[in-house]
Amino acid sequence: MDVTSLAARSLSGLLEQATGQQLVTGRRWRIETALQPVMRAHGITSLDQLAGMAFQPAAHDLRNEVVEALLNHETSFFRDLASFRLLGTEGLETMARRRTAQKRLRIWSAGCSTGQEAYSVALLLAARPDRWAGWTIEILGTDVSPAAIGQARDGLYSQFEVQRGLPIGELLARFDPEGEAWRIKPALRSRVMFSVHNLLDRPPEGVFDIILCRNVLLYFTAERRRAVFDRLTAAMAADGLLILGAGETILDQSEAFEPDPDLRGFYRRTGQA
Ligand SMILES: C[S@@+](CC[C@H](N)C(=O)[O-])C[C@H]1O[C@@H](n2cnc3c(N)ncnc32)[C@H](O)[C@@H]1O
């Protein structure tokens, strides 16, 4: 495929407009492969034909299908294990100390894909029932993709998905087998709320104590990334924690957050001692 074709660029432009995600040249090869199912479903034989149809004014549904197909939902349970270890120990303990009076915590997994990240947080909490007895802990998982949020809500994962990062003990204790797949048990399912949300829009209502926004902003332009970080500051408690993906940094990206000196790899609002 000619990766610089007008059709490929127009279709990846739809993704960027809707979600902020840029398909950089290195990832453009994905376009035709990723769009094959959409083309097949509509009997379309080329990217040019798809672009021609998708840009018809009334083709909202087709445009949404294109955007959905081009999103990268790569994720796994306890992805970047070191980060989850830190969250499960000092991260949550630090926030618990700050909230001893209220015994309430709100945690937001922003760009949660198919839910593994949000459920991993729920699993951390469920592993220490005595520690969290009497606490009200809200976990919200959001993603721009209705399909990803649909799977997260179903809590249904293939054998391949549960094998990625989920310890076998957790699998057997917290999931029920269902055919070839595994469904998260209702007790854990009910601890997490999911909704469709675009990080380009205003954040969900209320203030969060911990925000995970991991492997989502990598392909945003610097300008958009900065704007999202500004919004995240507004959605986070003054003494809250921000957690990014293992390969991500805030340095030179935003003045709103700075590395937390006590929690390596986590961020706090700038100037918050
Ligand atoms: C690579 S996955 C990362 C999932 C998870 N956070 C992790 O680190 O494993 C990126 C997710 O961000 C979502 N996403 C992309 N742009 C978004 C936007 N503007 N608002 C909300 N979610 C977005 C995608 O749909 C995808 O599910």
List the keywords.
binds S-adenosylmethionine, single chain, 273 residues, globular, Rossmann fold, 3-stranded antiparallel beta sheet, 7-stranded mixed beta sheet, alpha/beta, 19% strand
Q: CATH fold name of the largest domain, please?
A: Rossmann fold
- The count of strands amounts to 10
Our count of helices gives 11
Question: Strand arrangement, largest sheet?
Answer: 6-2-1-7-8-10-9
* Helix content range: 40-55%
| Low-confidence runs of at least 5 consecutive residues | none
Total domain count: 2
- Per CATH, the architecture of the largest domain is 3-Layer(aba) Sandwich
Report on the architecture of this protein.
- By secondary structure, the protein is α/β, with parallel strands linked by helices.
- 41% of the residues lie in helices and 19% in strands.
- It is built from eleven helices and ten strands.
- It has helices spanning 6-19, 30-41, 47-54, 60-70, 81-98, 116-126, 146-154, 159-163, 168-174, 186-189, 222-235, and strands at 104-110, 136-143, 156-158, 175-178, 181-184, 192-196, 208-212, 236-243, 257-259, 266-269.
- The strands form two sheets. Strands 6-2-1-7-8-10-9 form a seven-stranded mixed β-sheet, sandwiched between helices.
- The longest helix has 18 residues, at 81-98.
- The model has no long low-confidence stretch (mean pLDDT 94).
- Bound molecules: S-adenosylmethionine.
- S-adenosylmethionine is lined by residues 19-21, 71-75, 79, 111-113, 117, 143-145, 148, 198-200, 214-216, 245.
